[in-house]
Specification:
- Helix 1 crosses helix 2.
- The model has no long low-confidence stretch (mean pLDDT 94).
- The two termini are 26 Å apart.
- The protein is built from 4 helices and 9 strands; from the N terminus they run E-H-E-H-E-E-E-H-E-E-E-E-H.
- Strands 4-3-2-5-6-7 form a 6-stranded mixed sheet, sandwiched between helices.
- By secondary structure, it is an alpha/beta fold.
- The site of 1-O-pyrophosphono-5-O-phosphono-alpha-D-ribofuranose has 17 residues, from strand 2, strand 5 and helix 3.
């Protein structure tokens, strides 16, 4: 597939992502095998593609739900203020909740989500994150299932965007600096 001019290089190609998603799904399926199932909560918009692929590989009963958040002033400075703009459809009380995120950057979003869900008394609460940028962390959050750790580069594709562009690229690519600087 041709890469758009804005992409410097492919970081994770389709095969590599698919293989890791299969491994994560196998691990999650094994860990929840003796449970009465789980609810996957995808964080919109970025997680929609990862969530769809992960869910279809799970060998354990599950429901899917979504939550949408918006972080204030993300493009300038990430100060950790997160706003809930769409809540899950169903209650998570008493259920095994797995929060599914595309990327963990400063950690503020996942920290907010974990605090929010913990207060709702789920039976269990875990996190599944495709990409982590450890160098960027401002708040430590626990990741139970992690796809890849990467360096601090702006990555797009497979759900990840720059100004809402490039989300549906089938691979994860590094954006050229000149696009965002
Ligand atoms: C991204 C990503 C996470 C968040 C992580 O969302 O999907 O939710 O940033 O960043 P943090 O660790 O610094 O909080 P974004 O705000 O880009 O919205 P989107 O998913 O709609 O693209």
């Amino acid at each position: 597939m041709n890469t758009p001019d804005s992409i410097e290089r492919v970081l994770l190609d389709e095969e590599k992502i698919a293989a890791r998603v299969r491994e994560l799904a196998a691990q999650i399926s094994a860990d929840y095998a003796d449970s009465d199932g789980l609810v996957l909560v995808g964080v919109l918009k970025g997680a929609f593609i990862f969530m769809a692929d992960l869910a279809r590989r799970l060998q354990v009963a599950h429901h899917v739900d979504f939550i949408a958040l918006s972080s204030y002033s993300k493009s300038t400075v990430s100060n950790g203020a997160v706003r809930l703009i769409m809540d899950t459809r169903a209650s998570v009380a008493g259920r095994n909740v797995l929060v599914v995120e595309d990327i963990l950057d400063t950690g503020h979003t996942l920290d907010y989500l974990l605090r929010t869900f913990r207060a709702r008394n789920p039976a269990s609460l875990r996190t599944c994150v495709l990409i982590s940028k450890p160098e960027q962390r401002q708040v430590e959050v626990k990741v139970d299932y992690l796809g890849f750790e990467i360096l601090n580069e702006w990555v797009v594709g497979y759900g990840l965007d720059y100004a809402d562009r490039f989300r549906t690229l089938p691979y994860i690519g590094v954006l050229k600096r000149e696009v965002y600087e």
